[in-house]
Amino acid sequence: MATQTKKLIEVALPLAAINAAAAREKSIRHGHPSTLHLWWARRPLAAARAVIFAQMVDDPSAWPDLFPTEDAQEAERQRLFRIIEELVKWENTTNETVLDAARAEIRQSWQRTCQANADHPRAAELFDPERLPANGGDVPDDLDARLVVLAPDCPHTKDGGSPAEAAAKAILETRGNAPRLYRNTLAFLAPDRTRLQDLDEAARRFLAWNSILADDETLGLTAHQKRQVEQQIASADAAAAARLPETYHWLLVPSQGQPTEPMRWEALRLTGNDALAVRAAKKLRSDGSYLVSYSPTLLKMELDRVPLWRGNHVSVKQLVEDYARYLYLPRLKDPASLLHAMSEGVGLLTWAQEGFGYADDFDPAAGRYKGLRGGTSVTLGDPYSAALLVKSDIAAMQLDAERAVLVPVGTGVPASPGETGSSGGAARSPSTPVAPQEVMPTRFHATATLDATRIGRDAGRIAEEIVAHLSSLIGAEVTVTLDIAALVPDGVPGNVVRVVRENCAALRIIPDFEDR
Question: Which of 190, 220, 267, 330 lies at a C-alpha separation of 20 to 30 Å from 246?
């Protein structure tokens, strides 16, 4: 037996808005079907549209996993009412924006119905939504970043509230009947509604010529005619391939500035000549919405800002899941990027100020961390590890206490239990090695060659990953010098010389042009 879901019409309707639109529709004298004949049945189309929509759309109470409280259900119900209030207006009879919003809601309810009846013995026949992707259940819910390509019947417009946003929202929130866990891994590629017709025409032309070639024997095509058909197929295929990236140029990215702010959609327009997936990746990276590498400094900042600590520590597994779940955190390519940042943060020489400690486990009874270390190399490769990142001040406090037990202050040698010197201090034990004193460097110098076409990128990385660490040290004096050398075999034109000299003067740089 099929699983039934409660529809909106079974619970409530915005009757006042429907009645008002129906009453007004009876007085319309131009363009209404009732003007075709005097005895035409005057059943207002406003009521028909409202009833059909409410019969096909699920009531929020049918999905308690998505809307667990009565307040949440009522808020969603009011949102559906607002769609009906626009749908019943006679002026919106041919308004594609309003119709697309209604179609998106119907499509979403149908997808949920198909998913709920996936185990039906005739599911393939009766509950096949025929969509790409069919529903959120087709999109894996894992830790890796993914680009979801929406179906052609989910176009995007600049007006907001497009079918693409509705479909993307449904996929982002659920996977089948269950809520989606890892929402911060998805971005969506959607077609443009104004360009969709051109792509549809090209695809139909390609399919039509292919059907002619498939029936060549029935049609009795000659060899010459077959060659003409093949040429038309190639031409139609090239046209469809060219229109595909022109149509699919909207990138929808879910984002959230702060944990307390609502989620919003950012619509980014793709450009370039690369494949669609490559264009999308480049656009996300340039916009800062997709990171293929991550620095320990940024990780430490997010740990303290949100905060992501669970008390004085957080497990590796929990932190990996946090970055995949929450939209207010940076979107990373995969867990390996985050694991690398964790490893670097533990291994920093300045880990106590800019990093964090690392421990194998925590002993609640003793109130101490097991296998605690900081400022040492650690390799992390398992995103499901139960190991812990520890707040740097807490880790430093325990490590200092452990060193104080090993080497009492003023002796420089390890203590042997039960043995004391004449002065009450610990006597040297020949079986215990003396802890070596750390020698810290006092100067740093490095030279780097930057890509002349990407100076901003390279200089920014150097500033973030090197200069920032050195500048944060108390008493540090950091000087950054930029050397520019250009060799132009054919000589520098006079206008370029003049512009460079003027810009150097404005930037207080002393230029030096040399002859051959």
Answer: 330
